[in-house]
Amino acid sequence: MPLWLKRIGKFLVDCIELYLPMLSFTVLFVSFMTQIVARYLFKPLIWPEELSLICFIWTALLGGLYAKRTGSHVAFTMLYDIAKPGLQKAMRIAGNALLLAAMVLIFVPSWNYIQFMAYKKSDALRIPMNWAYFPFIVFLADMIVRLVIDIVKDIAGKASGGGKP
Amino acid sequence: MNLALIVFFVSFTLMFLLRIPIAPGMMMASAFYFALSKNPAASLDMVAMQFLTNMNASFILIAVPLFVFMAEIMNSGKVTNMIFSFANALVGKRKGALGHVNVVASIIFSGMTGSALADASGLGSMEIKAMREQNYDDGYTCAITAASATIGPIIPPSIPMVFYSMLSGASIGYLFLGGVLPGLLIGAGLMIYTAIIARARNYPEGQSLKPREFWKLTLRSIPALFSVVVLLGGIYTGVVTPTEAGALAAFYALLISVFFYRAFGWKDFMQVLVNTVRTTGTLSLLVGSAYAFSYIVTIEKIPNFVAGLMLGITQNKYLMLLIINVVFLILGMFLDTMAITLVFIPIVLPIINQLGIDLVHFGVVIVLNMMIGLSTPPYGMLLFVVSGISGTPLKVIIKEIIPMIFVLIVVLFIITYVPDIVLLIPKMSGYR
Q1: pTM for this structure?
Q2: Beta carbons of B316 and B417 less than 8 angstroms apart
């Protein structure tokens, strides 16, 4: 793969897993502050509350992907740590395969549910709820791709960063 | 027991055996259950539905990213340094001064952060460095840093209390206020222990500042210390909700870091945002995944089953609190705090309600209990953090922290059986 293509790819992944949740957290914070100012100085608003909840969902799910990339998710590591490297590899493959199966299993039903929610719009801003809930699909898709990559790397014996959950 | 439920438990166990991260792991166990269950209330889109609708309805959870953001700003700007210098000046010439400074700084800092890990990683690295320069032994240094970080989520704000409030429906404002005295009690306990150890091991004395210097430093620390006033004062007087207080205090920290201490640039701000997103992702994904998980626990009536079992052993609330405390302390030795909160607290809440135990009192007790779990071997996140910062082997830290854990457990039992220590301040502010 040429270098420029790699760079673009990395940038796109960064957009999804890092820049977008950073942006949505900033919007959350700003709309929250707007609400406080409005409530004490003028009259309470409805939209900031709505917007900050939607941004929270976006930050949580996409930030969760960034946490997966940096290996920050909490896991119970005591047994894994005392296992021999060969067994550790088998544990990684088995664990990732189980996760992969579950994510694939719920992908289509989740997609249908979220598309179905298009009929509902938020009260103040009239944002369709399928937009608000869309990062869940992104989360599942990204997880599926990353899990497949992890499994393939492990089987091909190229896993170097397998030390993190 | 039906097949779906067996698969549910087996996948839950596999999550621990195979080191599957707990957040997606809970989604996995739920997905397999939903795929197999014949219960009409179960379908495969439930993982998404429970995650999204509950998250969209839990306004209180927004406090979590806000508290994380605030702690990140404090640690990145100069605020944490200021608190450390101020605590240093306050303790003065005492024997084992830096041990005391460690505790005092944690008490002040805990009025700004809601997480023990933020305390240990930000303030902690500063404390460990200072103590090493004065030749304190590594074991004690790391142990007191970890043990004093426990105060972080007890004195408000507190991320674990937000989760407890969400699960139990207890008022977050009163929970926060209820943590103040127990937090100070832990501080006192650790300082008494430090005084004894410092004498026995002949730890170095601190330096007392000249009055002029002391006041100069105090004056410079006031903006940093004032953030505690913003937070606690706002919550205590009810002028702002605890969530709003988090946003306001973060905004305030941002202002003083940029304009007063001038130690916060664009690059720092970006790094703060990255860290906030990562921590928020870790915590919120756990909560979101736990919704489907606890939905299953509920439709399978597991809490009722456990309540029946436990109430069969005893109906005495003091004995029950003892049993629950011991069980949670044991769970804390092996499991992550968030996993315990989200999986086990919903299971014991019906018992607490049935025995008429005050939910605010129980909340503070159980949060302290779980925070002790952060320092207990073999699995204690605080131990890992201080060991990681300092490069000290876990074994050395564990040996030194055991007497401190004993101090924490004594405080835990005092507040369990003297509820007024928890409830005094909430009552002054109008609880019940």
Answers
A1: 0.87
A2: no
